[in-house]
Design goal:
With about 180 residues, the chain is an all-alpha fold. It has one domain: Phosphatidic acid phosphatase type 2/haloperoxidase (Vanadium-containing Chloroperoxidase, domain 1, Up-down Bundle), CATH 1.20.144.10. Helix content is about 75%, strand content about 0%. It has eight helices and no strands. The longest helix has 29 residues. The chain starts with a helix and ends with a helix.
């Protein structure tokens, strides 16, 4: 296990040493779209107002997803398994984005991107390719910007899968009866 941590610390250093202002700004933009789940809130409100058939259901499921994320990632994981961000540990990694100084484990951006991507992808299949591309760019941006280690991103993705499918399970078992 220690070899994995050494490997991902070296990977964080490699990302920290690559200098490309164009890519820096691009990944800052991608990362800010995920800040406080901004783009997903926009999507949720759009479907609420534009999709008369299932928009209300998707919006409620999204609210539940946000609540689950807040409790599990922001309140439990970040404080139970605190891990300093790479830019805090390694001075050679320039902090070029965000003001978050809380723990890095797991990546909340990636957790929310994957979970919301699963939710919106299930209901709006024609957007699945842009959703997948956004998820990949979000995950990579967190590494590029020195905000997370690889395991932070992978665990965040795993939690996102669990949260996303849990909300779809709730939809199938309970909400179909409640939200008609």
């Amino acid at each position: 296990m220690e070899k994995i941590f050494i490997w991902e610390q070296n990977l964080a250093r490699i990302f920290g040493q690559i200098n490309s202002r164009i890519l820096d700004y691009f990944f800052i933009f991608i990362s800010y779209l995920g800040e406080l789940a901004f783009c997903w809130w926009v999507a949720a409100f759009l479907v609420l107002f534009l999709d008369k058939k299932q928009g209300k259901r998707v919006f409620v499921l999204f609210l539940i997803l946000v609540l689950i994320h807040l409790v599990v990632v922001d309140l439990i994981f970040r404080y139970t398994w605190y891990r300093p961000r790479p830019f805090v540990i390694f001075p050679e990694i320039e902090k070029i984005a965000s003001f978050w100084n809380n723990g890095s484990f797991p990546s909340g951006h990636v957790t929310m991107a994957v979970a919301a991507g699963i939710l919106f992808g299930k209901f709006y299949k024609k957007f699945i390719i842009p959703i997948i591309i956004f998820i990949i760019l979000t995950a990579f941006s967190r590494l590029w910007l020195g905000m997370h280690y690889l395991t932070d991103v992978l665990v965040g993705a795993g939690l996102g899968v669990i949260f996303g499918y849990f909300v779809l399970y709730l939809n199938k078992r309970w909400f179909k009866k409640v939200l008609k």
